[in-house]
Amino acid sequence: MDIDYLLWLQSIRESLPAFAQKILEFMGSEAAIAAAVIVPCVIYWCLNKAAGTFALLAYGSSSVCNQLVKNFVCAYRPWVRDARVKPDPVAIKGAGGYSFPSGHTQSAASMMIGLGWWYRKKRWPLVLSIIFAVIVGHTRNLLGVHTPQDVIVGFLEGCLFVALAKKALPWMEREGNDVKAVAIGLVATVVFLLVVTFKPYPVDYVNGEVLVDPAEMLVGCYKVAGVFAGVLVGWLVERRYVRFETGGLSFFEGVLRVVTGAVIIAVCYLVIGRGAIALLGENGGQLVRHTLVFFAVVAGAPALFAPLGRLVGRRKS
User: Fold this and answer.
1) How many CA atoms lie within 13 A of 34 on its CB side?
2) Quick check: 38 and 115 in contact, CB under 8 A?
3) Three-state SS for 206?
4) 19: left (phi > 0), else alpha (psi -120 to 50), else beta?
5) Bridge partners, 205 (sequence order)
6) pTM of the entire predicted model
7) Max CA distance (Å), the chain
8) How many Å apart are CA 313 and CA 140, to the nearest integer?
9) Mean pLDDT of successive 10-residue segments in the chain (317 residues)?
10) Do 98 and 146 meet the contact criterion of CB atoms below 8 Å apart?
11) Helix (H) or strand (E) holding 34
């Protein structure tokens, strides 16, 4: 039944004009998820630190869960299961590895619905965030890279970790619980990496080529472990030592913060991250790269906001 549904969507996709197919490709691409990550970062830096923290925590924790499930279920992509499924050529480039659950849908749901839930009193942010996550998920079906069950579980996974973050964050913020919470999270991350690294994986071949290389799947695990570790450690450092504020910023100050954050992230990802991969190999390097990037988001860039603000203020006077 799921394959029949994908084949029906495939017939619709193939009849769409070129510009509509490009829109679909963007909505199901890494660029759309990158945009979804940028939104909570900007909100965290400039508008509402608590809302951004909530969304980033939900995203980091749900990403680890998603990779854990992927690496245990080991479900192949739709076109592997049925050769009639012809995924979009652009989308297939970013759709390697196992299929279940959808990481794009989980990412969109955890981050955007996390923000929507935080602003739920206004209603429209929550409605828009749910619509965005549903569109991202449905686009993965339209592009032929995920089955409906992949998307549904990815969506529910994101929502589940929004609910868990709602319960966990108040406990984490109680006096004396912050170090304990980070320690628990880091130990859980280490256990996660040990489990996925040493568990057995199926190795099936078609025409002499392996369908899913377990080594590639491990890279994804080390990436999300870095995301979660960076968010946790960054949250603790910011909470105890940085303590930046988001209220009463001018437009210029907001732009300065976003530019500062973007530059630091670029340096961590492109310069230090590449060096880490060259030195430590793909797994260790990606772990370091993503830890640094999300630490920079949560604590590194905010540590510079106050000094930069004072510098700009002196120059204006």
Assistant:
1) 6
2) no
3) strand
4) alpha
5) 210
6) 0.91
7) 71
8) 47
9) 86 82 71 76 92 94 95 89 83 78 92 89 87 89 90 95 93 91 96 94 79 86 96 96 87 89 93 94 95 96 84 57
10) no
11) helix 30-42
